[in-house]
């Protein structure tokens, strides 16, 4: 007969995170090469230097006529400069013209190479074409309407630093210099499984018999890991059986970079995850129980040389534990800096009791008033109420030094959405 037992001690959140990072923070998953077309959102693992100039030659920035600027200096509407037309230059095509000499011009289209002898381009709207002659009614300075060689990128320029999240504009630059492939940080593989005889997968039969609860926490945690730049190895649902949980941990540790279990970490008779981890390794449980609310049953250990994170089964507890202790490590591994939430100031609508020595994550709803934002607590307890997150506008983190926060106190609210 398994009996319930309490936590002997709770580890401060900062100490828990320090232990995790000191053990696994230096490890990296390595790199791999991908086509630039599929690199958006990945993290660069090389410093890319251009081997070409962009543009590769002096080219026209407008449709018009390539000229020697000195031939236009005295031109005006009343006294246009008259130039002889000596051919056409098109982008991507052969230039059907010789060098531009004094008193001559060449019809030119946007992107076409500037003919030899020309130093500027007059826009078409400032000219009038009369057969083989062109009347220029506006003077242009040297270099007008011309993109010079290397104006955008010069040979030897760094176009992408390493450890940068690749954005669409980076892909455009890489394409412009002719780079089809880029080295990126390999996505860490995070294995996730849930425990509980009562759980069924999405689409399973909920509300009938013993297995009556849809596992909503696992897909949420998987999505958070994916958003942190990781690949997810879904380990499914495991029954509340010591041997089954142990086998699942070992199997996932062999094929993944880290293992996350969900559920079975509290102090009930059916909470077997820490015991299963201990049965596998002497380091199966490094700590169990964190001074955080919600999320106290969080645990950390090592299985098969890989970090094992034991998350509580309640969705809000699992989310808080993941954000506070796991995501900082996963972000280091993936190279993707976690998105910083916008923070606003608000005043509490009512007093919130807290326990000294425990870090509290308070879900709040915000209301805009003439006197500023008011933060109304949605749930102080209720870590199993997922709707307390979907209805919340933000999170207030209350530090360990507080013994309650009074009504009207100013608090910092981390917005869940912009």
Please outline the helices and strands.
Layout: H1 13-24, E1 31-35, E2 48-49, E3 59-60, E4 64-67, E5 81-89, E6 96-97, E7 104-108, E8 120-123, E9 127-130, E10 133-136, E11 146-147, E12 158-160, H2 168-176, E13 181-185, E14 189-195, E15 199-200, E16 213-214, H3 217-227, E17 231-238, H4 242-255, E18 258-262, H5 273-280, E19 287-288, E20 292-293, E21 299-303, E22 306-311, H6 315-334, E23 343-348, E24 359-369, E25 372-379, H7 387-390, E26 394-398, E27 410-415
Parallel strand pairs: 5-7, 14-17, 14-18, 15-16, 18-22, 20-24, 23-25
Antiparallel strand pairs: 1-13, 2-12, 3-11, 4-7, 4-8, 5-6, 5-10, 9-10, 19-21, 21-22, 23-27, 24-25, 24-26, 26-27
Helix pairs in contact: 1-6, 3-6, 4-5
What is the helix content?
10-25%
Give the strand content.
Answer: 25-35%
Major β-sheet annotation: 7 strands, mixed
Low-confidence stretches: none
CATH homologous superfamily name of the largest domain? MoaB/Mog-like domain
**Tally of strands:** 27
Q: Counting H and I runs of at least 4 residues, what is the number of helices?
A: 7
- In round numbers, the mean pLDDT is 91
User: Which word captures the global form?
Assistant: elongated
């Amino acid at each position: 007969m398994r009996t319930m037992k309490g936590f002997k001690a709770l580890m401060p959140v900062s100490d828990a995170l320090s232990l995790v990072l000191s053990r696994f923070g230096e490890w990296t998953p390595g790199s791999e090469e991908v086509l630039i077309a599929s690199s958006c959102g990945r993290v660069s693992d090389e410093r890319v230097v251009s081997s070409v100039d962009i543009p590769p030659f002096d080219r026209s920035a407008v449709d018009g006529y390539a000229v020697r600027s000195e031939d236009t200096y005295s031109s005006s509407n009343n006294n246009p400069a008259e130039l002889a037309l000596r051919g056409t230059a098109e982008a991507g095509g052969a230039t059907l013209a010789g060098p531009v000499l004094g008193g001559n011009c060449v019809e030119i289209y946007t992107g076409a190479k500037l003919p030899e002898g020309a130093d500027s381009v007059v826009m078409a709207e400032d000219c009038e074409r009369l057969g083989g002659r062109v009347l220029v009614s506006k003077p242009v300075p040297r270099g007008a309407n011309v993109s010079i060689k290397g104006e955008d990128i010069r040979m030897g320029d760094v176009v992408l630093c390493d450890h940068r999240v690749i954005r669409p504009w980076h892909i455009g630059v890489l394409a412009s210099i002719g780079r089809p492939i880029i080295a990126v940080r390999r996505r860490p593989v995070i294995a996730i499984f849930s425990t509980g005889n009562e759980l069924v997968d999405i689409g399973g039969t909920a509300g009938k018999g013993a297995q009556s609860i849809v596992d909503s926490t696992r897909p949420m945690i998987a999505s958070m890991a994916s958003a942190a730049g990781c690949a997810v190895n879904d380990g499914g649902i495991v029954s509340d059986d010591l041997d089954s949980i142990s086998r699942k941990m070992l199997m996932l540790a062999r094929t993944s970079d880290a293992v996350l279990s969900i559920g079975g970490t509290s102090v009930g008779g059916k909470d077997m995850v820490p015991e299963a981890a201990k049965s596998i390794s002497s380091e199966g449980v490094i700590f169990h129980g964190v001074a955080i609310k919600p999320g106290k049953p969080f645990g950390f250990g090592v299985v098969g040389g890989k970090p094992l994170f034991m998350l509580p089964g309640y969705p809000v507890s699992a989310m808080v534990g993941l954000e506070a202790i796991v995501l900082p490590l996963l972000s280091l591994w993936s190279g993707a800096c976690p998105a910083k939430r916008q923070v606003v100031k608000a005043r509490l609508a009512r007093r919130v009791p807290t326990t000294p020595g425990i870090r509290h994550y308070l879900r709040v709803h915000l209301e805009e008033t003439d006197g500023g934002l008011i933060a109304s607590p949605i749930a102080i307890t209720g870590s199993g109420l997922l709707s307390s997150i979907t209805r919340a506008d933000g999170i207030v983190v209350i530090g360990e030094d507080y013994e309650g926060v009074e009504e009207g106190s100013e608090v910092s609210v981390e917005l869940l959405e912009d």
